[in-house]
Amino acid sequence: MPKEMLEPVIVVEDLDFYYGKEQALRGVSLSIPRNKVTAIIGPSGCGKSTFLKTLNRLHELIPGARVKGRVLFNGRDILSREVDPVELRRRIGMVFQKPNPFPKSVFENVAFGLRVNGDVSNLKEKVEQALRRAALWDEVKDKLQRSAFDLSGGQQQRLCIARALAVEPEVLLMDEPCSALDPIATAKIEDLILELKEDYTVIIVTHNMQQAARVSDYTAVFLTGGVMVEFAETKKIFENPANKMVEDYITGKFG
Amino acid sequence: MARESYRRQLDELSDAVLSMGNLVASRLGKGLEALKRPEPELIEELFRGDDEVDRLYSKIERRCIDLLALQQPVAVDLRLITTAFKISTDIERVGDIAVNLGQYARNYHLNLRLLPHEQLFSIGDLVTTMVYESLKAFYDKDPRRAEEVLELDDQVDRMFWDLVSRLIEDLRGSPDRGEEIVTGAVALLLSIRDLERVADHAVNIAARTIYMIESRADYI
Prior knowledge:
The complex is a heterodimer.
Chain A: E1 8-19, E2 22-33, E3 37-41, H1 48-54, E4 65-73, E5 76-77, H2 85-91, E6 92-95, H3 106-116, H4 123-133, H5 137-140, H6 153-166, E7 171-175, H7 183-196, E8 201-205, H8 209-215, E9 218-223, E10 227-233, H9 234-239, H10 244-250
Parallel strand pairs in A: 3-8, 3-9, 6-7, 7-8
Antiparallel strand pairs in A: 1-2, 1-4, 4-5, 9-10
Helix pairs in contact in A: 3-4, 3-6, 4-6, 6-7
Chain B: H1 4-36, H2 40-48, H3 50-71, H4 75-112, H5 118-140, H6 143-173, H7 179-214
């Protein structure tokens, strides 16, 4: 763990993960600092997306998936059966690789989580606030009742971010959020990520190392076999990594 | 505009280069002042203040490395960063020369007066202007101003060789080869050699600036 790290919001302790007999994560321990952007990078199949899924228990939807270890969110082990996964996912939101808006209007997409939670007072204001936070309001304020599918890919992804933000999470997980977007839409999402850390903790999985370098404060490098080999300030990882394998990976010598 | 934080960092880099440059140019002015009027406080300030120049230099280098490592700069952004990286070395060297002038002032100023030295200050003023102008050209991204700096270099060279010839003549004509004359001549030569170097550094800053703005490889 980086020495200068601030108070962590999530502490992962000795996490093992299995898909049936196959082990996808091996003894991962990691503390995620609050109100910072943490990037998870590594080659395909290194377990980075699996790791992200365990942070809001999405792995439970995968048959045969099994975890060992602890994931403490504000000090409480979220892998414990006593934790309600629906409530957990409200507090730790997620944005996926491909924008996945619901087949509803722009407004209803953002209002969806609020309605599910029965939080319908001042709905318009809350939807507007979420869209503003996702830097989308100015582009959609005159078409709130239009289908979300009428938006561009980049706008759809920001809509999904607004949808996640509407229920006021503490942590936002992003799994390759720009991989389906063009460079301009990507730059907008990256700008947004930098703004979001004022209020949220962001954890982003990306196979685009340059993106990790641009947007994150801390970077964790996973390598094949599901081992996390280095976690440090992003500058340190990209300028002077401690681990030779990390250096070889980020300089393109393997992976 | 996209990548706002990155754009801000690029602006901050230009600001940092300009403020380091302005500090060094003002220290150069103080070095010249010390040769005219070698007050101990002024000389002390010249010696003491170099640490601040070095600190700013390291910070600029750090900023450039971070931007290169983390932001994948291309095209004009890449040229800005490489230019800042390169010209900050020129600025730092000018800072060292300001310290040298302080040393000559402390050790030899009285002896300078025994020789033709007025032109030293004309060269000093001209090269100081070149430093300020080259920095302004860099900061304002003004290639015309940078070209003007390049043109001044010939004038500095002429003044330099002219003063060297006058000094040689003066020494030949002088029956006195005493300690004061010898050290004064050495100090004068070192001073004008240093000032001529300052002009070269200003030329480097100006040429890199033209490269940065117009991407002309012949100015690298």
